[in-house]
Specification:
7-stranded mixed β-sheet; 9 helices; alpha/beta; Rossmann fold
Length: about 240
């Protein structure tokens, strides 16, 4: 499947039910960039990360190739959406202080995307890959992960983890950190988060069976109609030469 089209039918669930990122993550990503840095947010999707970057003072060029995802974005001061890809952003050379890829770099052609990042980021700028992953030291998150793995249609989860190694090929000073995160969900939220995942079945008998298992998991673990998924946010940040 063309990675730029994977989320066309899932854009609404993605916008509504995907987890956010903590202030500690945004502070680390933007470290040393000064006031109102200009940031290219690659694979910006529905703007979850772009809104957080803007809330932390950045002027954001949200680069997203999928029209359905861009259509779900909330108009936000400080954010301009751009129809481009991680490999071909359409942005000018040395035109941004930093480039970010939140939950997106594994969809890119890594060598081409890294070359594009080196082109658009000014000398002395920064780049960061950010990933929300399940923290499966937590039994509930591990149980949800077991369901996801049973129904996964491809190796996206493996590629996500491998993408951190690929991103570290950027020149400059590279640092990898992890931050605790969590997501509190009601039943519809947990199902919506599941439906937003492009490598899980979206219709037919397999999708029905998947949603049944997720609903059963919720019923077993919810308290007062909600449950908490433990997450970990991984950040690989490069200070460019």
């Amino acid at each position: 499947m063309d990675p730029t089209e994977r989320f066309t039918s899932r854009a609404s669930d993605y916008a509504t039910h995907r987890p956010a990122y903590g202030d500690d993550v945004l502070d680390f990503v933007l470290t040393g960039l000064g006031p109102e840095p200009r940031v290219a947010d690659l694979g910006a999707g529905t703007g979850i990360s772009s809104r957080l970057l803007a809330a932390h003072g950045a002027r954001v060029m949200a680069v997203e190739p999928n029209a359905a995802m861009r259509a779900q974005a909330q108009p936000t001061p400080g954010i301009t959406f751009v129809d481009g890809t991680g490999e071909r952003t359409t942005l000018g050379t040395s035109s941004v202080d930093a480039a970010t890829a939140f939950q997106a770099f594994h969809w890119f052609n890594a060598p081409e995307a890294l070359a594009e990042i080196r082109r658009i980021v000014r000398p002395g700028g920064a780049a960061a890959l950010v990933l929300n992953e399940r923290d499966e030291r937590d039994p509930l998150s591990a149980a949800y992960g077991d369901i996801v793995r049973r129904y996964a249609l491809d190796g996206t989860e493996r590629r996500r983890m491998e993408s951190m190694d690929a991103f570290e090929a950027l020149s400059g000073t590279v640092e990898r950190r992890r931050f605790p995160n969590q997501q509190t969900l009601d039943r519809d939220g947990l199902l919506g988060r599941t439906r937003s995942t492009s490598y899980l079945p979206h219709d037919g008998a397999a999708a029905e069976a998947l949603e049944h298992e997720v609903s059963e998991l919720f019923a077993q673990h919810a308290t007062d109609g909600r449950l908490r998924l433990a997450l970990v946010t991984w950040v690989v940040r490069a200070k460019m030469p």
